[in-house]
Amino acid sequence: MSAQDGVSRLQDPAEPEAQESFLTEDGCYVALTHAPLNVQSIMDRVRSPQAGAIVLFAGTTRDSFADKSVSKLVYSAYVPRALRTMLDIATEIRAKHNLKSIAMIHRLGEVPVGEESIMIAVSAPHRGPAWRAGEEALEACKAKVEVWKWEEFAEEGGGGGAWRANRDGAVGERVA
Amino acid sequence: MTPKPPAGHFNILYFASAGSYTSKNVEAFPAPLPLRKLFAMLEERYNGIRKSVLDHSLVTINLNYVDVPADNAEAGPDEVMIQEGDEVAIIPPVSSG
Predict the structure, then answer these.
(1) Residue from B54, B63, B94 to probe the interface with A (highest A Cβ count within 10 Å)
(2) pTM of this structure
(3) CATH of A20-164 among 3.30.300.30, 1.10.10.10, 3.90.1170.40, 3.10.410.10
(4) How far, in Å, CA of A29 to CA of A122, rounded?
(5) d(CA A117, CA A109)
(6) Which of B21, B67, B74 is nearest to B43 (CA)?
(7) Residues with pLDDT less than 70, chain A
(8) CB-based contact (8 Å) between B64 and chain A?
């Protein structure tokens, strides 16, 4: 088992924001990127002649939290720690469900409302394990991966913003 | 990338609400420091951070999660010390996805 890691440059090499940081190992690929997510490329990462199913989950950014209107979302991460956590999750889920491959990618920086912030793709010989693995992988990511979402509210008087916490589903610490 | 701490220091990375509270992403402190003194040291500099942020957060040293002992824990030969050059991070509840 040899883990590879690295930074691949997408689009403009002079633009550090376009970097994608990734870890990969034995049928697992995990990445963090500032670029928009691409459905085709994550599906192609798990595509296999031995697979009878690919399940893809795409999480998109919503324009509301509880009754508040959200105007802007910005994700930040502890990149090396988050990649390790994502790889741990991918490795565990792949083994548990006998997946062919699993790929998970999370977008960082500002993500316009309605665009994808996370994508998970899994391939397996049969659809049952693929469905289950996809859901489990997402729930594990939301519980553990060291990424944080800042939501800015569109309200009268500026609105302010808040760090969201997945754990309790509550709005995080309010910052004026 | 995070700058290296100066000689004789370690870095603390502040994520999410920890960054908002301190208005910083990273800060260097003198090393070594017993881990059990970390929260008291931060509370002294950032009044109220303990209740607002630290009590709900996890801590890593060089990317590994550690248990922060209570303030009144006994100093002993086995206690974890934060060393020169270490990267400590305050990890508030995550909100990926």
Answers:
(1) B94
(2) 0.90
(3) 3.90.1170.40
(4) 10
(5) 10
(6) B21
(7) 1-18, 156-158, 168-176
(8) no
